[in-house]
Structure formats: structure tokens, C-alpha cells
Amino acid sequence: MYSDKVMDHFMNPRNVGEIENPDGVGEVGNAKCGDIMKIYIKVENNRIVDVKFKTFGCGSAIASSSMATELIKGKTLEEAWELTNVAVAEALDGLPPAKMHCSVLAEQAIHKAINDYRIKNGLEPWEDRFTD
Ligand code: FES
Ligand code: FES
């Protein structure tokens, strides 16, 4: 049911934890299942130099957070914003259909963290393609 990559990122998640004095934080809850994901980012020169997450949720949500943080580390805010939940799921070699919403949490949490950073720096927040 789950790919080796999903199992790997679930059993050995990357970038777990919190960042002290983060430049942006994004927290989202999933209405479907009640799971919660929080993403912290450190930004220098418009680039995500560090990222950590805390996820209270299912294995797919943990694997999605782990993969998504790996994918945005070192990227510009614009590049990180473009990361879709489908791209996260593809990087994990797929998620079962009933678990696709878990990857949506990762995209939304990253967007919230980026917008938190933008608002704190007096910039307009970007528009998320999902509404919550
Ligand atoms: Fe999220 Fe079961 S629905 S852990
Ligand atoms: Fe809800 Fe995975 S079952 S985030």
C-alpha cells in the first residue's frame, strides 16, 4: 500500500523539530481527519536556509512533511511556493488516493509559513490556491 519512500520518511523523518526565533511559521489543521502540521522556516536573502516541522498526524502526513521540507530547503521563497502537494506525493513515489489530503497539509503549511514571513516583513501575502 505504501511506497518504500513513504515508509522511509515515516520511519526516519527529516527536519523534525522547531526553529528558535523562526522567520515564519505555518500551522494547518486538516478538517477531514483533525491532524495538525506546523512548519518553521528560517529565511536569508529570500532563501529558505533552514526548515523544521512538527506533525501530529498519520504516517502519510509525517512522510509528506519530511519530504516537503527536504524539497524546499535551500530554495527561494518563490520556488518553495510553487511546490504542490502532487509534487510532494510524486517525490514519495505516490500516496494512496485516500491519503492525498495528507500531502495537501504540507503545501498549505509551507504557504502559511511563507506568508507569515511576508506579513512580518511588510509584504503582501500571496494567494493560496486552497481555502481553509
Ligand atoms: Fe489522521 Fe488517523 S486520521 S491519524
Ligand atoms: Fe489526515 Fe493523513 S489522514 S493528514
TrEMBL record:
One biological process term in Gene Ontology: iron-sulfur cluster assembly
GO molecular function, one term: iron-sulfur cluster binding
Coiled-coil residue spans: none
NIF system FeS cluster assembly NifU N-terminal domain ranges (all copies): 1-121
InterPro entries (UniProt xref): NIF_FeS_clus_asmbl_NifU-like (IPR017787), NIF_FeS_clus_asmbl_NifU_N (IPR002871)
SUPFAM superfamilies per the UniProt record, alphabetical: SufE/NifU (SSF82649)
Signal peptide span: none
Domain of life: Bacteria
Name of one Pfam family that matches: NifU_N
Protein name per its UniProtKB record: Iron-sulfur cluster assembly scaffold protein IscU/NifU-like
